[in-house]
Specification:
Strand content: 25-35%
Shape: globular
Distance between the termini: 56 Å
Helix content: 10-25%
Radius of gyration: 17 Å
Oligomer: single chain
Mean pLDDT: 83
Structural class: alpha+beta
Order of helices and strands: HHEEEEHHEEE
């Protein structure tokens, strides 16, 4: 029986390990998976009713994941010489971000990306070897947290 590309793709996908990563709107218990995947050092800092999990890699990338007391990631920030995997960081919000970013680029807009779609805000910019950005879900931000606190 000949194999077509779809059959082979489905078969390969079935054997891939499924890993949960801390992602926007996701659960804080998976931050450890991000730390392992990035081979990063993690430092957690308790603030005014939330915890910031900072992951620092040897190659200079810093990712901060902001978790509410309920254990939900309500914001992520990044900075460093390379862009992190935004699909991993934004999780289920990535398709919304991608569509809005493509629409913005289709207009010929250049410069930093600024996406505000429904409940999602993503700001990303920089240049080679100096990227930064942040993303947050407005409805998940605890009441005592100001947007300016997300850095």
């Amino acid at each position: 029986m000949p194999f077509n590309k779809l059959t082979v793709g489905i078969a390969l996908f079935a054997f891939l390990p499924i890993a949960a990563f801390a992602e926007l709107g996701g659960d804080v218990t998976s931050v450890q998976n991000d730390q392992n995947r990035l081979q990063a050092v993690r430092r957690a800092t308790l603030s005014n009713g939330y915890t910031v999990h900072e992951l620092q890699t040897d190659n200079g990338i810093s990712v901060r994941e902001y978790a509410s007391t309920q254990g939900k990631i309500f914001a992520v920030t990044w900075e460093g010489p390379f862009l992190p995997d935004l699909q991993q960081l934004l999780g289920t919000y990535f398709p919304t971000f991608k569509a809005a970013a493509e629409a913005q680029r289709a207009t010929g807009a250049r410069g930093p990306l600024a996406v505000t779609q429904d409940d999602l805000v993503v700001q990303s910019g920089g240049h080679m070897r100096a990227y930064s950005g942040k993303a947050y879900v407005i409805s998940l931000i605890p009441p005592q947290v100001a947007i300016a606190d997300i850095q």
